[in-house]
Each structure stands twice: as C-alpha cells, then as structure tokens.
Write a structure and sequence with these properties.
about 270 residues; two-stranded antiparallel sheet; mainly alpha; 10 helices; globular
Amino acid sequence: MRPLCLVLALLCAPALVGAQADSTTRPPGAFTMVEVRRFGVTVVAGGIAYLGDQALRDALQRPGVQSSELLDGAARFGNAYGAPGVLVLGAAMWGGGLAAKRPVLATAGLRAIEAITVSGLVTQGLKVTAGRARPFTSPDNPADWKLFRADDPVEGSYASMASGHATAAFAFASAVTATVKRRAPERARAVGIITYGAAAVTAYARMHDDKHWLSDVTVGAGIGTVTGWAITRWHDTRPDNPIDRVFLRPFVAPTRRGATMVGVTFSTR
C-alpha cells in the first residue's frame, strides 16, 4: 500500500500546513485535518480489504455466481450507473433544478459534478502512480504492483487501484446526501439510502466483472466519499463563493431574433 500512502500524503500536505493558520481570519480549506483523518481511515480500510482480495475474487468468479441473471443484471446497472450515469444524473439535476427553480436540486447536482470531478482526478493520479494489475490480468496475484506502470489510466490492464466507477458513485452519493441533509433534512435519509445503495451496487459490479479487487473499490469509495463531504463543507463555509455565483444564478433573456438565451452572470471584486 506504499503508493497509496504516498499519494494521499501529498494530497493532504496542504491541509497540514493550513491547519496552522488562524481559522478566525479565513474559512477552512477544502482539505483540513478532518479530511486527513478520513483519508487515513480510507488507507486502513483499503489495507484490511487487501487481505481479502484473493478470496473474494475467487468467490465472485465461480460459475454459479457468474451465471446468475440477477447478479449479472445488478452488475450491468452498477457499471452504467458509475460511468457515465452519475455524471449525467448530476448534470440533469443541476440543469433541471435551475429550469424548475428548485435550488436544492440544482445545488445538489452542482455539488455532485464538483465532487465527481475532483475525486476523479485524485483516483486517476493514483491509478497512474500505483500501476496495479487488474484481476483479469493477474488473477492469482493481488500483490502485482509496479510504480508508474499504468498503460491506460481509465481501463488499462495496470490501472486497478483505485476504482474510478466506485469513486464517482460514492462522490455523487456523499455530495448529494450532504447537500440535502443541510437544505432539506427531512429527505436526507431516503436520499442517502438510494444513492449509497446504488454506489454499493457499482462497487460490486466492478468486482463481478473482474475489473477490480476489493481493496480497489474500498479505496475508491473512500476517496469519493471524503471528497464529496469536503466539497460540501467548503461551500457551506463560503456562501457567496464564485462557483455558486456563476453556476447557480442563471438568467433567461430573449434575443433580437426571437430566440431565448440562457446564461450566467458573475462579478469580479
């Protein structure tokens, strides 16, 4: 797990420095000591899952499991939901919320897009750095690692750590649920059950299709979840930030040719 620890340490280094700043003069950064601890939990969880990688992979690839129509259908749903499903759904929530003047829906969609984007960059960097072989490439050796070996950071044979699908699905779940909890708490429980449940199916799908080990989806889920929480908290401490001013305050106006123009406004300070 040394490659994973190195990447997470580099990501969290700014938070360690920023923690010394006076919190009364500026809002906390996106990654604070809270995120450092949560990323630490992700590393520990990934290490524990690593111990069960081979046994679970062998169990899920048994003929009885692979021939199950129910599990195969769940895997198809999970794969589509993880990519590009959650990104499309986030964009639809954002655009639909703006059009219908439902700010909670629009905000949740925007937070989801942000969380998916940021966590995706983290995961892609980890894929390239770790160079871990996918289960279908090295089925009997979950310890097949080589730094900077990833041939394709998305679907390459050596881009197993971490799961991008799981990262995106859990980033969507955490960002949307956290946003709803703050703005419409009466709906948060149902939203959490649905979104985290769908994310869990996505994690299973990646293992069912022999694309990832258990530790891959565990770390991906942790990265996505922590990032979603961090994005939401960052916005909560900056209620008039430039991102929201641009993307949550659109205007609709007629053009000279009779068409309708939709855009955004922003100001500089």
